[in-house]
Amino acid sequence: xxxxxxPLADVNGAFTGLATMLAGYLAAVLAFVLVIxxxxxxxxxxxxxxxxxxxxxMGVALVGAIVVALAVGVAPTIIGKIGH
Length: 84
Prior knowledge:
elongated
């Protein structure tokens, strides 16, 4: 009986798909964090400590979103260079 040959896996496509899937999940987490931090900021009233904490949480969430977007954009290029 001849051996069955399987096609080689597309590593670039697999990692790109994984990065896109994780970015989708992180987008939902980002939206949740922004809603909660915005809610806390709206109801901080005269408490400057709570207002500062909620603004910092929104800033950190936005920086995280930028990092994820850059990672998803750069991942195919890096994987393509490693694969060759």
